[in-house]
Predict the 3D structure of the following.
Amino acid sequence: MATEKDLTQGNLVTTLLMFALPYVGANFLQALYGAADLIIVGKFCDSSVISAVATGSQLLQTLIFFITGLTVSATVLIGRAFGAKEYANIIKIINTMTVCFIAAAIFLSTVIITFDNPLLKILQTPMEAFQSTKDYVFVCALGLVFIFAYNAISAVLRGLGNSIMPMYFVAVSCFMNIILDIYLVGRLHMGAQGAAIATVISQAASVIAGLIYLRKGDFVFKFKFTGIKFDVETAKELFKIGLPLSLQDTLIPLSFLFLFSLANSMGVSASAAYGSVIRLNAFMMLPAGSFAMALTALTAQNLGAGNMKRSVNALKLSILFAFSFGLVFFLWQQIAPYSAIAIFSTDENVLHEGARYLKSFSFDYLIVPFVFCLNGFFFGCGRTVFAAANAIFSAFAVRIPLAFILCTTIPNATLFHLGIAPPSASVVTTSSALIYLIYLAKNNKLYSHK
């Protein structure tokens, strides 16, 4: 199996699909990995534990998102260097990213453990679920280094055009997580804490597999566990591209945490239902997210090779493929929303609340393919400032205010009203992105990342 893949050559449809489909597989497994906790907890525990795992994982995911901007920037820089055949730069990027990720993991673990009480109170965590949520958050915080390490390894490989091996690594983690969840939660009755322990051990296994592959693989660079050096100029470039994304990936989930707090205020059934929908969305959104991430790496390599027109065509194809999936998911949730929520819970109240939310929220499945793919294209071009600003604006100027207004001014507001806010924000994001894309094309700036 080739360790690298040149995305600047070959039939575009074939190249895009062969590169994007492993993304779909990896993201599906990653979503299954996260959902396994909730599914198994839902089978063996009451709604308070479901709420604990849902709330705790959402909090941790929000904080983890801070580092994903650097992950994308590493993919972009490595892809650009690989496309330009500047192989000496690749090892500098890897070394610098490693130092940044270790520092971030230590910092965020400390923050989470130190401020868990106020953070959970901000989320209006139901009192019945508070201690279980604390237990879940504490264990997962100790294992953040493994989550960051997996993302770093995946960023390197995807920048090199290799999307298959990250899928294998997450498959190892997913399989172990399910087995450990069944044993720790189902057999030993450890609840939320058992789900967290399973998560940490499983992530560690995927990291070990990834490090072995990097060490043994026949790459254009030589990976070493020792002698890692920090390059200031490379760090500046990483942060220049990555910080806007880190800001976006931190603030956007915060906007959804605000929605989560509104759902929590509606009671434990609404909280559990919203948490279940979040897990469901991890599956529903993954085709669009996968094509967007594939487009980022493809665009970066072609930018390095001076062949950006290929990326524009890939953008059109990515939107087409992602929208096809989104249409299927939209129709499913409009016709049979109960069947989706039933994957995570058998509680009648949770099923009813979740179906309410999906009836309105599912329109987002038709809009998100445009949002994600346009952003993936901009990321690959290094135009992260606009993409981040656009997403943040729609979140805080549309999603949060609209959700607050609907849920506080409508008598007996339900999750149906809460679900109107996300697709409304996506419409604003897409409109702005299309206007910006047209502006770049008309002013002959589309093919430059400067």
Observations:
- The chain has a mean pLDDT of 84.
- The two ends are 35 Å apart (CA to CA).
- The first helix runs from residue 12 to 44.
